[in-house]
Amino acid sequence: MSLFNHIVKIIIYLILFSLMISFFIGITHEGFYEYFVNLMDNMHVEAIFKFLSGFNTIDIDRRHLLSNANPINAISTLVVSSLILGCINYQVTKFQQVNR
């Protein structure tokens, strides 16, 4: 974001904020929630989300759903994604400096 001027930063932040608000408003409606759940089920990404977040649901006697948190997965995902995004940021910054 440091590569953009002040007006473009404001526009990007407003767009991201409005998308976030509209997503959260939309997901509170039952129809959108059901569509979102069906979309995620069809993409078979539940195992990936559980691995990345570190949460595993355990069904005991088919009565209770307990969440078992493992923070190692979330921390390792955060570190790896931070390294990747840091490298991308470094390359974009160097590219912009060469162009100027």
What does this entry look like structurally?
By secondary structure, the protein is of the alpha+beta class. The protein has four helices and two strands; from the N terminus they run αααββα. The chain has helices spanning 6-28, 30-43, 46-53, 71-99; strands at 55-60, 64-69. A two-stranded antiparallel ribbon has the order 1-2. Strand 1 and strand 2 form a beta hairpin. The longest helix has 29 residues, at 71-99.
- Would you tell me the overall average pLDDT? 76
In terms of per-residue confidence, which ranges show pLDDT below 50 for 5 or more consecutive residues? none
Gross geometry: flat
SSE pattern, N- to C-terminal: HHHEEH
Compute the CA-based radius of gyration: 19 Å
Record the strand order, biggest sheet: 1-2
Helix count, per DSSP? 4
Biggest sheet overview: 2 strands, antiparallel
